[in-house]
Amino acid sequence: MKRSTSEIAKTEAEYWDEGKLDRTKIKKLRRHAFFYSYKREKRIIDSVVASFEGKEILEIGSHSWLMWIKGKVTPKKLTCINISQGQLNQGIEHATEVSFETEFHLMDANELTFPDESFDAVYGGAILHHLDIDQSIGHIHRVLKPGGYIMFTEPLNMNPAYKIYRKLNTKERTPDEHALVASDFKKIREKFTFQHSFFDFFSVFFGFAALKIYGDKNYDNWLNKIGYHLDVFFSKIPFLHFLFARVIIYGKKR
After folding, report:
1. At 93, which CATH number?
2. How many angstroms separate the Cα of 58 from the Cα of each of 5, 42, 109, 112, 171?
3. Chain centroid to CA 130: how far?
4. How far apart are alpha carbons 153 and 130 in whole angstroms?
5. Which domain holds residue 63?
6. Can you list the positions of beta strands (E) in the chain?
7. What's the predicted TM-score (pTM) here?
8. What pLDDT digit, counting tens, does each position of 150-191 carry?
């Protein structure tokens, strides 16, 4: 029986508030596999975030702004929401350090309570896959002003090998999260123009080899570089997109 969004939200809050996730196993591999792709991701995010200057923006989450917004642009106002009070507190703690106006709310992104057309941009880091896509995208579309922007970084679950890994490593994720698949892209396209950049297929395998050779150090190595360049080349081929592990989605309200 499918659980309600309120039940799922309660479980999500519990997992984040109590720190139940265990990602120690994957972190070493990520430091190799994502070493170069994180740099590429940062360049894309910076280019999108540049349009947030002087705008009213909403983060679905509460501390991605520390990496994406702080020191790069000065929004008119930053509003953050989170289902977890613990996660929300992390954002609140750092908000005393910035000059622009901030506001934080304990809120379920499946049920945004903001008035229509409140924000110029809505963004989030690895958040949509914790939500009901239909509900959350509908609310995000509603609270955006005409022509407003979205940007989300998300994990993918289209590659059969990644599907198997996820089933075998359940402690790395919350019980109800669902990394994005092709049908989720279709739902987003219905309400937003849709651009995307894909990351991390070959880099995962080359990163695994690099981890075995170098251990948890020396991430700037030839193996990781080869994996990264192969990813950049093959990510331009649409029918191979299902192979990749991560995506940046960005676009404008239709």
Report:
1. 3.40.50.150
2. 21, 19, 11, 11, 29
3. 10
4. 12
5. 5-20+49-198+239-252
6. 56-60, 77-82, 101-106, 119-125, 144-155, 195-199, 246-252
7. 0.92
8. 999 999 999 998 888 888 888 888 888 899 999 999 999 999
